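Possible regression after last week's pipeline update?

I re-ran a chain I had predicted before the update to compare outputs. Posting the input and the new output here so someone can diff against the archived version. Not blocking, just want to make sure nothing changed silently.
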Amino acid sequence: MTAQDTIDQLHLLPHPEGGYFRETYRSADSLTTNSGQHRSVSTAIYYLLENEDKSHLHRIKSDELWFFHQGQALEIVCIADGQPTTIVLGPDFSRGEVPQAVVPAHTWFAARLQSQTGYALVSCTVAPGFDFADFELAQRAALSAEFPHLAGLIEQFTKA
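New output (post-update):
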């Protein structure tokens, strides 16, 4: 199965941060966050990155769990407390790849295929549920000013 076959079969659409997605679940139950926002208890999406596609640096106000399904290993790059870390989501546990990972709320993060060829299909679950009002796409100049020691990394994962 090719990336395009997967995109077609799962009815994926282009995602604003890069790659393709489709929401597959939105809880009928809702809650009020500590900041007074009303959100679904949880949401889930399929998410696919292909070849040199990237999920550009962004952050959300909820925890996000990533689950590997098929394809090539995927790097999730996080910036927490001014330090970069990388989680490799994939099927090869002997190489340190993991089948699931958590990105804590308010953490800057991005993703790309480790090999930059092929594709990776994952699912992402957000709790409290995802809302675009809670989504912030990084601005290269502002993030580089905040973390000048990470300027090269930030340039790789932001739009000009």
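Follow-up from reviewer: compared with the archived run. The longest strand covers residues 63-71. Marking as no regression found.
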